[in-house]
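2024-03-11 09:14:02 DEBUG pipeline.ingest accepted 1 chain
2024-03-11 09:14:02 DEBUG pipeline.ingest length=303
2024-03-11 09:14:03 DEBUG pipeline.predict start
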Amino acid sequence: MKQLLLIDANSIIHRSFHALPPFTTPEGRPSGAIYGIASILLKLWREDRPDYAAALFDRPEPTFRDEKYAEYKAQRPPAPDDLVAQIIEARNIFPAFGVKTFEKAGFEADDLIATLAEKFGGTDGLRVVILTGDRDTLQLVTGDRVVVETFNKGVSDTTIYDEAAVKEKYGLAPDQLVDYKALVGDASDNIKGVPGIGPKTATELLRKFGTLDALYRALPGDPKLEKKLGPFKKEADLSRELVVLERHAPIEIPPLDALAVEGDPAGARPYFEKMGFDSLIKRMNGKADAEAAGPKSVQGTIF
């Protein structure tokens, strides 16, 4: 089965920025996060190269979620200047590996990932792998055809979630995770959810009723639940609208063949030289030895 890799660029940049030392280029520009991305891509290309790939970026403009809820992500501090500079620079590292990039004002990278997964997820003989540090994309998991590879700690240890793994981890199906977050909220995005509903209660309710809509339809028959949840339907509905990913973002999606990647990452060498990534050039030169070591495990390391 061939593989389409969808890369959550901003998520990986943030992970690398906080996990790696503050490297600089020969000109003194910050490069630690770029080094992290380059190292991840080099390892993937050597050990588990995708057949197709795309990198998806956030944009600085407000999104449709900000229009619905002014406090969306309002608690987050501004990104440091060194990080902003590397987010901009990262748009050059992916093309160096032959990977096309996509971004759209008003939409987040997760929405673009959802749109491409929706487009290609049903393609015969194709597996879609979403590489991200953000588990919001777990709602997109479909069987073992659309899966999420996410970071556990830093940028070294990863786990692949197919549908069975999501159910084992969360006790819910992937398509129930949106309603789960509608109930419990998401502090990282400043989404409130329903007051007093924690993870355990939300999981029990969704196991019993299946969906948020079915839960609210059942409230008149349960005075205790109606008292607890009834006054907060508006909050739950808004939280769900903010959490659910847009699977039809207005971007131009090329044919799958246009996302094909080259088998040899040597095209990235000039970029590595420009950035002063001598250790990655050495690793690139030792490609044969690295490949002889064998493939990575499901819970493996990126570096």
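2024-03-11 09:14:41 DEBUG pipeline.report The radius of gyration is 21 Å.
2024-03-11 09:14:41 DEBUG pipeline.predict end
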